[in-house]
Amino acid sequence: MRVILNGDDFGWSADTVEATIELLERGVLSSATIMPRMPSTGAAIEFARRTPKCSFGVHLTFGGNGPERPLKALDRLSTL
Known about the structure:
alpha/beta, 3-stranded parallel β-sheet
């Protein structure tokens, strides 16, 4: 059996990016999901581009009650 440990919210903050990178480099995490439109998304993307040995996905944000910036306003989303 293969267990995949994913680091979520990659890009949320500088601290989150730093910790996720450390865990990816140490082999603790198998992958990470990049969170668009967050304060440190650029740093997360930069790391992902130069680290092809790791797997990356996207953490889509459809709503939020904090610093999340959804891709579209909730009242403009179709039903899922």
